């Protein structure tokens, strides 16, 4: 199988280099697309070849790299169906290296589909089974696992982000801890290009609701310290002032809308009194923890 692995790898990498040169010379790059078609035939051949089936996952991973490079990730689905539903494969028979790569790419696909529980499962598998000596590989897995964990309400330690040079997530995590909407927006703006290239920008943008939840929780805690009997009643003008202090200009109508969404998404328990402009919070667990669940699941 080593000879097959070498040929398949070289085919993909040489096709990538050929496409790069063709683009530079003004020609239409089509070598990688052709390599993908050939690899698909190789995959089909290996699928029914007894002991040689073990090479099918390696070919699959090379196909994923081709499809991600070409921006045709939808083509991954047919290969995934063959691996995960066909009875001819026993996933555990494949080499660990290939299983890690496979779960990394399928985890990324689940991130793009906002299927965070499945993404968490696959990326965690890749992380746990990835050799710790492969620092760059661990970093690439964490690059997608971190936004998944954040979406599930789980915040990583800053030391982990520093260790694997994922500084772009530092202020995102700090914003979530502090309930600082301004800091989250600044972080997204500062690393916008990188987040867009990775395909996680929209995932991170949706974290703003969690930041509002933490801001409301902070207001609630402060009110509880001052007057425990009225802590569960949060006036809208108090929220407006807190946002203004963060240099976020919003009127009461906009704040009302955010409160309604927080309640609807089960990020905050209570009800809104439109007449008195007050959110009346539940006296029991007013701010439910996500605890590994996606928002509104």
Automatic annotation (TrEMBL):
Domain PCI span(s) in chain numbering: 100-286
Entry GO CC: transcription export complex 2
GO biological process: poly(A)+ mRNA export from nucleus; post-transcriptional tethering of RNA polymerase II gene DNA at nuclear periphery; transcription elongation by RNA polymerase II
InterPro entries with a match to the protein in the record: Csn12-like, PCI_dom, WH-like_DNA-bd_sf
One Pfam family linked to the record: PCI
Domain of life: Eukaryota
GO MF assignments: double-stranded DNA binding; RNA binding
Protein name: PCI domain-containing protein
